[in-house]
Design a protein that fits this description.
Radius of gyration: 20 Å
Largest sheet: 2 strands, antiparallel
Structural class: mainly alpha
Strand order of the largest sheet: 1-2
Shape: globular
Number of strands: 2
Helix content: 40-55%
Low-confidence stretches: 14-20, 58-64
């Protein structure tokens, strides 16, 4: 099998990010979040912002003002849930991750990336499904955050292909020691 080296494509930063098409295609995602995604500096822990099922929770880390006739206005800060609280299951991660991949696919293909970019994202989604069945969820989530950060660094240089590769070093570092225990069937 002969492989050819990937062509270099300039980073997303040269693209004007005021393109109204993104806002029309993803009306539930604010401009700041879209810009972070297109500039590859969107943190994996904030994928929940892309999940339309969680729009009610988008007010996390906001200030609550409470007013009652018997007491003066009080201020309370809501705590932001931890990643383990937000991403309790594979589904809670995959739904917003697929939205992230949709945004990146449109952006990459519109800017001259190879037509295989969506394939890279499908490969990673499949990889997550496989490892979530083999390893403890908390380790899979940690692996995902580290993997995601590495891919964002690569995408800054126009390389999206890392999403299709298994990061063996990262798997050894984070996953291997957290293998799921086999389930014992009782007769």
């Amino acid at each position: 099998m002969v492989t050819t080296p990937l062509e270099f494509f300039p980073p997303a930063s040269y693209i004007p990010l005021t393109d109204p098409d993104y806002a029309a295609l993803f009306p539930h995602i604010d401009e700041e979040t879209l810009n972070a995604i297109l500039h590859h500096d969107f943190p994996a822990a904030e994928l929940y912002k892309l999940d339309t099922r969680r729009l009610q929770e988008s007010s996390w880390n906001m200030v609550d003002l409470q007013d009652s006739p018997t007491s003066p206005t009080s201020v309370a800060f809501r705590a932001v849930p931890s990643a383990r609280e937000i991403y309790k299951t594979l589904d809670s991660l995959l739904v917003p991750l697929n939205m992230y991949f949709s945004i990146l696919s449109i952006h990459a293909l519109a800017n001259g990336q190879p037509i295989t970019v969506p394939h890279y994202f499908f490969r990673y989604s499949s990889h997550l499904v496989k490892i979530s069945a083999q390893y403890e969820w908390s380790a899979v989530l940690l692996y995902h955050f580290a993997f995601f950060a590495r891919r964002c660094s690569e995408m800054l240089n126009g390389d999206y292909s890392g999403w299709a590769k298994n990061d063996v070093d990262l798997m050894e570092e984070i996953l291997i020691q957290h293998h799921n225990k086999p389930k014992i069937r009782r007769a």
